[in-house]
Amino acid sequence: MGKRPLSFYKELFAKILFGIAASAAVFAVGLICVFLFSQGLPAMAEMGIWQFLTGTEWRPTWNPPLYGILPMIVGSLYVTAGAILFGVPIGIFAAVFMAEMCPKGVYRFLKPAINLLAGIPSVVFGYFGMVILVPFVRENFGGTGNSILTASILLGMMILPTVITISESAMRAVPRHIYEGAVALGASRERAVFFTILPAAKSGVMAAVVLGVGRAIGETMAVRMVAGNQAILRAPNEFLMGVRTMTSNVVLELGYAYGDHRAALIATGVVLFVFVMIINVLFSLLKKKEGAR
Amino acid sequence: MKKSLKWILTAAVVCVAALPLAACGGDDAPTTTTAATNPPTSTNTPPVTTATAQETTADTPAVTGQIAVIAREEGSGTRGAFVEIVDVTIEGNDNTTQEAVVAPGTSIMMTTVAENPSAIGYASTGVALNDARVRVIDIDGVSPTVENMLNGTYPIQRPFIIGYNVEDGLSPLAQDFVDFIFSAQGQEVVANRGYVPTSQNAPDFAGGGLTGTIVVNGSSSVYSLMQHLSEAYREINPDVTIDVHGAGTGHGISAARDGLADIAMSSRDLRESELEFMSSLSIAIDGIAVIVNPDNDIENLSLAAVRNIFLGEVDTWENAR
Asked: Where are the domains of chain B?
């Protein structure tokens, strides 16, 4: 065995270091999976999975208790859909503006402002929502103000930085000649942007939307401060009424819960986890389809 | 094709115009605050004579319409005590209206009631009486003052009780800790946590240098206060270990009976059967205040009316009066 150069050991060391770093993330996901499923699934099985998922009454302190999380599942879907409704159009158009049309001077102000928005802690967003948005919605639309609409607006605001930043960089990554070709063929600047660059950056923009959805569905602190947290199954036209999301359900009661109640909350976490996984799978399927074409 | 392009462009222009607003929403919050909080007077409520809410309640307009019921989350000690004392139950189960907004935590309860003119909520008296953003109302004509709680006329209150096995008695160390709880220092901790101290003009605590272990078990509502008491005691006696467990009132009492705990904690009066073997000392009173928005002119509700509001059987302020 000949003597190896120092660079070999340096390389090996770096490989191991990066390998450990990479596996740390996988290890964390695995650990969380094991914890969630080992604690949540038996409880779900005991309560009856179907009954748990489709039950409309959440009465954990009753005797006997009722654990039905359908209102929370639907609640999470409502506020996430609402967040997309408010956040995605504004976010994508903002990204188009920033990537293609923004004067340099404005960009120098806009970019840090958006980064700042991303850095605001969610509890601050929650407080802002509680003292500004809730009264605003109550006075202009009615209800108590603690509602699906309020939570949607607030979440829409919170996902803006994610949507803007990622779709902007996706658009910037589109080869310039596509745009130039369109312009050379006589398209106006706007037309070139919306019909060549935006479609070319589609998968990046989709990624931005999916990450926004992920942030919206997982958001806890801000939502529980403005959404009212009523565990009632709402119809879509009751958007001025309060709703409880899966995340707020867990965080509201976990501090006090023990026994079955605690297990039911962890099982709520399992359902949320499955939802996030479904979103991710859908996203990669979408990407695959895109690549195949 | 052309039409759709036009639409997209119009939408884009609108959004670009809105962008500065959206971007500023986060960092310019204070400016938006003043803009958004001023208009309310002009929309729904009749002209308000802005005056300090506490004194000139006669001038504040009657709040009408739907009552916004604000409750605490299930499992919260405050909610449990409120529901039990006001009897917001049906067949023994907590039946707080499902339409109630759930405020996670006392501070969010205070802010929610402070921001909503038609709100009604509840919070520990220690917190509620010291927060000018909300108004504390009387129950059956009685205000939740320290005096009214000590003489028992204010209904929504419960004692925090400690007890020990009378046959075995207290160990000298546990007796020292109990002496501390009823000293000026101990009762100061009680008052600082927002509860009503039960012993007035308590003597100063003199002691220190003890060693050993004290086991305390019982009510989870008393648990947090007991934690603070034990921390304060351990500043004087750093070598004493105090194990505080919050396994529930019933559990604590049986642990004390069986000699597994020196001191039991209870968030209710002890029963006859328990008093046969337990002593009972009231260390604090936990009162719960019913709070409304300062814009609401209501000053008094009967206990029954409060019950009906939280059950959701009365849902407008007109009917509650």
From this structure: 60-157+288-320, 165-278
The model scores a pTM over 0.90: no
Whole-number pLDDT of residue A108 = 92
The interface predicted TM-score (ipTM) is 0.80
Name residues whose C-beta falls within 8 Å of residue A211's C-beta, 6 or more positions apart in sequence: A162, A163, A166
- Quick one: A74 exposed, middle or buried, by C-beta within 10 A (0-12, 13-18, 19+)? buried
Helix (H) or strand (E) holding A197: none
A230 contacts B102? CB cut-off 8 A:
yes
Count of Cβ atoms closer than 10 Å to residue A1 Cβ: 3
Q: Quick: pLDDT tens for B207-221.
A: 777 888 999 998 877
Between chains, do A113 and B119 touch, taking CB under 8 Å as contact? no
Range B165-278 has CATH code 2.60.120: no
Residues 205-244 of B with CB under 8 A from A: 220
In order of start, what are the domains of chain A with their CATH numbers?
66-292 (1.10.3720.10)
Assigned superfamily of B60-157+288-320: Periplasmic binding protein-like II (3.40.190.10)
Shortest distance between the Cα of B281 and any Cα of chain A, in A, equals 26
Instruction: Name residues of chain B where pLDDT drops below 70.
Output: 1-61
**Set of chain B residues whose Cβ sits within 8 Å of the Cβ of A243:** none
- pLDDT score, position B56: 41
Structure tokens at B307: 């019950």
Residue B108, H or E segment: helix B106-115
Identify the residue among A250, A252, A260, A268 best suited for mutation to test binding to B, counting B beta carbons within 10 A and taking the highest: A252
Query: B243 vs B77, B136, B207, B234, CA distance in Å?
Result: 21, 37, 20, 12
Which residue on chain A is closest to B34 by alpha carbon? A132
